[in-house]
Amino acid sequence: MSREIVQTEKAPKAIGPYAQAIKVNGFVYTAGQIPLDPRTGEMTEGGITAQTRQVLENLKAVLEAAGSSFNQVVKATVFLKNMSEFTAMNEVYSEYLGDVKPARSTVAVAELPRGALVEIDLVATV
User: Fold this and answer.
1) 113 Cβ contact partners less than 8 Å away, ≥ 6 residues apart
2) Among 1, 30, 34, 107, which has the minimal tally of Cβ within 10 Å of its Cβ?
């Protein structure tokens, strides 16, 4: 089993002891991404729509660094601070992954790092 750490400057640096993603056996497993701007390290302002877009842009950069893309995503997990924002999150999510339609779980959580409204992690083929 070959295991490779994936790292890119085009996504926020990990804020803990973990990698942005791991490639293993033809798959890439991303860490959950929150809406941090990779250039500034600051939280994206503008509510759930802007935050979901930033999260997906971060994930796009990580997938590309791993040699993958949204077209190869097979599983997504979405963590929402407020389930009442599901529809708004889903509209942005559909722009990025709507045609691919990976399996997905969406979970309401009490809190996310740095007060984020959304966090998403992905599994994709390489």
Assistant:
1) 15, 34, 119
2) 1
